Amino acid sequence: MNIVQVLKEIDHIYFSPPSEFDAARHALETAPSPPDCEAIERMFTKLKRQQQVGRHVQWV
């Protein structure tokens, strides 16, 4: 997956000002229910990929 694809999959809510958005709460609210290991791993992988791209874009 390239950088543009990863940026497009980031939920727009993550671009909200920190005073208006709690990322941890959002992650918990959008977590699979009932929780299962495979779904949580997919969610973790997606968030990690987005974080890595975000760091790269921030420094470019």
Give a description of the structure.
With 60 residues, this protein is mostly helical. It has one domain. The protein is built from three helices and no strands. α1 (3-9) packs across α3 (37-59). The two termini are 19 Å apart.
Summarize the structure.
This protein is mainly α. Helices cover 62% and strands 0% of the residues. It has one domain (3-16, 25-55).
Keywords, please?
flat; 3 helices; 62% helix; mainly alpha; single chain; 60 residues
Cα radius of gyration in angstroms: 13 Å
* Poorly predicted ranges: none
Q: How can the largest sheet be summarized?
A: none
Q: From N to C, what is the helix and strand string?
A: HHH
Shape: flat
Number of helices: 3
Helix content: 55-70%
The computed structural class is: mainly alpha
The portion of residues forming beta strands comes to: under 5%
Number of strand elements:
0
Q: Kindly, what is the distance between the CA atoms of the first and last residues, rounded to a whole number of angstroms?
A: 19 Å
Overall average pLDDT: 82
What is the total domain count?
1
Topology:
Layout: H1 3-9, H2 23-29, H3 37-59
Helix pairs in contact: 1-3
